[in-house]
Design a protein that fits this description.
Elements lengths: L26 E5 L6 E5 L12 E5 L1 E3 L3 E6 L4 E9 L4 E8 L8 E4 L3 E9 L2 E5 L6 H8 L16 H4 L7 E4 L11 H9 L3 E8 L21 E5 L1 H12 L4 E4 L1 H10 L8 E5 L14 E5 L6 H10 L1 H13 L10 E5 L11
Parallel strand pairs: 1-17, 3-12, 3-14, 4-11, 14-16
Antiparallel strand pairs: 1-2, 5-6, 5-8, 6-7, 7-10, 8-9, 9-10, 12-13, 13-15, 16-17
Helix pairs in contact: 6-7
Function: Transfers and isomerizes the ribose moiety from AdoMet to the 7-aminomethyl group of 7-deazaguanine (preQ1-tRNA) to give epoxyqueuosine (oQ-tRNA).
Organism: Thiohalobacter thiocyanaticus
GO cellular component, one term: cytoplasm
Length: 350
């Protein structure tokens, strides 16, 4: 398939710049993977689409305040976005400057922090932080929430809490698994009370998630790498769900990639390591039955994954409707609930 197959027109005013007052107040567009039909709904209706014995799988990654601003020794402005913390003193980062810094150069960040450029690994720079604190401690004290590039405002105090899921616990992401942002404590309690169980996986979302596909032929695209961990507990809960006839609902494309990476050889097994799994139409899903996700950028790898899951034409039609109905798009936007192609999305009014 071609990149252009996943293009749609999006008015800029539909890109959500701020979160809603309530996490659970978003709209939810549903897509039936069997019929291709879509329906306008609310996220508050999510329990009405689930049955006792279904399994909710969440991503427990935690967004770190990974963005730092400052100056080079020459006085030129520089912006640092940490991609991955390697150990207590070093991290790999994207560095934006008028001229790339060389090994040995020093960056003066947030007026209090001096880091050394220790080398380069591809597009990333290896940075060495002062020994008085760990990298994570420096970031927590002085870093900014790494809001996506389409949110055209500086981060604010409320973003520290709202650009984080309630179940975030493993630091390492530089972008939120945004489907999880809709859940509040009351929704989690409702689902538990309805007999829906929960499992956790970890995928540390990298800045590469916002990188555009630059080739027309998707076969030529090389997916960015992200760290995934699917533990024994998650595998056991999925197996138990299958045994009792329940369905697996992935909260976000990150969970889909985590579970499908762990089942890459055909059987779901515990997995820890990097994945470059690129899911496009024609992919055979092995684990996930239902998907809750936000709306994704035109021609993005995430939109391609959603099209692979529920069918390209139904998804693109649903997107066109979402634009006409003025849904809110992207990280702080509204949600979609989809069933896998060929699987009906049933509505059980409670």
């Amino acid at each position: 398939m071609q990149r252009s197959d996943f293009h749609y027109l999006l008015p800029e005013h539909l890109i959500a710049q701020m979160p809603l007052a309530r996490r659970d107040a978003s709209r939810m567009l549903t897509v039936d993977g069997a019929s291709g039909d879509w329906r306008d709904a609310r996220f508050a209706e999510l329990p009405d689409y689930l049955r006792p014995g279904d399994l909710l799988v969440i991503n427990d990654t935690r967004v770190i305040p990974a963005r730092l601003h400052g100056l080079k020794a020459s006085g030129g402005r520089v912006e640092v976005l940490i991609e991955r913390v390697l150990d207590a003193r070093t991290a790999l980062a994207h560095v934006r400057a008028s001229k790339s810094p060389k090994p040995g150069a020093r960056l003066y960040l947030e007026e209090v922090l001096e880091v050394e450029v220790a080398g380069r690994e591809g597009e990333l720079f290896r940075l060495c932080f002062p020994p008085e604190r760990t990298v994570t401690e420096w970031l927590e004290a002085h870093g900014h929430v790494p809001l996506p590039p389409y949110i055209q405002r500086p981060d604010q105090a409320e973003d520290r809490e709202r650009y984080q899921t309630l179940f975030a616990r493993v630091p390492g992401a530089v972008a939120a698994p945004t489907a999880g942002l809709h859940f509040d404590a009351a929704m989690l309690e409702r689902l538990a009370g309805a007999g829906v169980e929960t499992a956790r996986v970890t995928l540390h979302v990298g800045a590469g998630t916002f990188q555009p596909v630059r080739v027309d032929d998707l076969n030529a695209h090389r997916m960015h790498a992200e760290y995934v961990e699917v533990g024994e507990a998650a595998v056991a809960r999925i197996e138990a769900t299958r045994a009792r006839g329940g369905r697996v609902l992935a909260v976000g494309t990150t969970v889909v990639r985590s579970l499908e990476a762990a089942a890459a050889d055909g059987a779901l097994r515990p997995f820890a390591g990097e994945t470059r799994l690129f899911i496009t139409p024609g992919y055979e899903f092995r684990v996930v039955d239902l998907l809750l996700t936000n709306f994704h950028l035109p021609e993005s790898t995430l939109l391609m994954l959603v099209c692979a899951f529920a069918g390209c034409e139904p998804v693109m039609q649903a997107y066109r409707h979402a634009v006409e109905a003025e849904y809110r798009f992207f990280s702080y936007g509204d949600a979609m609930l989809l069933s896998r192609a060929g699987l009906a999305l049933e509505h059980f009014k409670r």
